[in-house]
Amino acid sequence: MRVTLSGAGTAQRMGRGHRAVSRVADVVVEAWADGREECLAEVVQALVESCARAGDAVPDACVMFALAEETDEALLTAVLDEVIRQIEANGRVTVDVSVDERTGATRGQVEVRLATVPVEAVERVATAPAALAVHGVRFGCEDGVWRARLHLAL
Predict the structure, then answer these.
(1) Which one of 28, 46, 114, 129 has the fewest CB atoms closer than 10 angstroms to its CB?
(2) Where is the Archease domain (predicted)?
């Protein structure tokens, strides 16, 4: 079992962070942040860190897409699906992510930007999920802090 942590302390003492616990058949990912978009970014970082170490890899490509999912859990699942698709289909690993809520005519949509590097530019530390098989998804605001928790099958 391998645990990847970002930040120090607990969710109550910090603005944002994440952890991933790799087990034989799955990865348990948890993240927390003051806002929904920041929590989404933390989940992506936890997923990537569970299977790769980017080190000083500098992004050389960017993938942008917009989503308008019905629920926060569906939004989280859609973002992670794209991160995994980038690894599988394009051989690209996300090393930075930004998520922004759109306003105006596109209100209700979220714009996601994944900064990526070739898979060869990172150190693989575990098997990446081959497809998005998620269960136990929880994503929402509790006591003023956005929290996410899910299990990803390997």
Answers:
(1) 28
(2) 22-150
